[in-house]
Design a protein that fits this description.
By secondary structure, the chain is mainly beta. The chain contains two helices and 29 strands. The structure holds beta-D-glucopyranose. It is an enzyme of class 5 (isomerase).
Length: about 375
């Protein structure tokens, strides 16, 4: 009798242990309607949560992060990214790539031109005289992506997929992309990028959230402390196209190698074409290892955000062109009320032979990862 019940309980424990990973796997988030585009395409939203109270809302237009609620040390949540309440907001002039997946080639391409395998290509010059963030009406931030939600034992996520047809926005090749967002149980928002092509083509995808760790709609990020793991940056001409040189940050207002308050030296940059920080940093790292690029801290809430990436660069942009547009909950977003840390290959790489290449060839798979890791100190 004793042996039987012992056997039974052993079997039960073994079954429970086997079932544990399944029992603890998060559910896949459900799609909710989020209106439609002006052309009548339905947009869906997915809400990801984790056990620490974090919430991330993602929409299929532009594979965009629309809300990101992050706890401070006391557990108070704030939505730390800029965004809009509806699709019309995202389609408005006020949308400066808020939270979007950006490409096919993020950042600038000089005069919207490049030559690949002997052929010249022309792209939209939507940031006169240059091409910016993939161009016109069919850039990746504007198209509606397919979505596949999932749950794992380490969090919830959504994989967005989109195949950009050959010639779309002037780029060669059918480019099949997958962008996977995962909100993990340890407060990482992880983004994994994958792409393949049937013709050689430039690819440089990034994520364009505007962060304010006090909460979106707070008046400034000038009080945030920033560390950038970069001894060098790519100096530019007056249209923000790199000269091709890599220059030391040491002795300039661009030096964030030690945690530094954003306001400390920004005044030295206001009369430059960038109007503040809008610079690509060359990260201190080898090859495509996943490494720390930046750490941001908001002294008022104590919230921190570390940025890790497989990319060679990060664009640090202090929202110098924000224009008081009204975002979520009718809150205005004035100049410098948020900042971007866009992990990427260097701007204009397609025209700069000494920069790491952005060319993807048939048979190769483009893979990059960016992690925004939240905490409090
Ligand atoms: C660029 C800025 C630009 C902003 C919004 C950033 O990635 O570096 O110059 O104004 O995106 O388009």
């Amino acid at each position: 009798m004793l042996t039987e019940s012992w056997l039974l309980s052993t079997v039960l424990v073994a079954l429970l242990l086997l079932a544990a990973p399944i029992a603890f796997a998060a559910e896949a988030p459900k799609a909710e309607p989020f209106g439609e585009t002006a052309d009548g395409v339905a947009v869906s939203e997915y809400t990801l949560t984790n056990p620490n109270g974090m919430v991330a809302k993602l929409i299929t237009r532009g594979a965009t992060l629309r809300e990101l609620h992050v706890p401070d040390a006391k557990g108070n949540l704030a939505d730390v990214v800029l965004g809009f309440d509806d699709v019309a907001g995202y389609e408005s002039e006020g949308n400066q790539y808020f939270g979007t997946t950006t490409g096919r080639v993020a950042n600038r391409v000089a005069k919207g031109k490049f030559t690949l395998n002997g052929k010249e290509y022309s792209l939209a010059t939507n940031n006169d005289p240059n091409h910016l963030h993939g161009g016109g009406p069919r850039s990746l931030d504007k198209v509606v992506w397919n979505a596949e939600p999932f749950g794992t034992d380490n969090g919830q996520g959504v994989t967005f997929t989109y195949t950009s047809p050959d010639g779309e926005e002037g780029y060669p090749g059918n480019l099949a992309m997958a962008v996977t967002y995962t909100l993990t149980n340890n407060n990482d928002l992880r983004i994994d990028y994958k792409a393949t092509t049937d013709q050689a083509t430039p690819v440089n995808l990034t994520h364009h959230s505007y962060f304010n760790l006090s909460g979106a709609g707070s008046s400034t990020v000038l009080d945030h402390e920033l560390m950038l793991n970069a001894d060098r940056y790519t100096p530019t001409d007056e249209t923000l196209i790199p000269t091709g040189k890599l220059a030391p940050v040491s002795g300039t207002p661009l030096d964030f190698t030690k945690p530094t308050v954003v306001s400390e030296r920004i005044d030295e940059l206001v009369s430059t074409p960038a109007l503040g920080y809008d610079h690509n940093y060359v990260l201190n790292k080898k090859g495509d290892e996943l490494a720390l690029a930046a750490k941001l801290r908001d002294p008022s809430s104590g919230r921190t955000m570390s940025v890790l990436t497989t990319e060679p660069g990060v664009q640090f942009y202090t929202g110098n062109f924000l224009m008081d547009q009204k975002g979520k909950g009718g809150k205005a977003y004035p100049k410098r009320s948020a900042l971007c840390l866009e992990t990427q290959h260097f701007p204009d790489s397609v025209n700069q032979p000494t920069f790491p290449s952005v060319i993807l060839n048939p048979g190769q798979t483009y893979r990059q990862t960016c992690i925004y890791r939240f905490g409090s100190e």
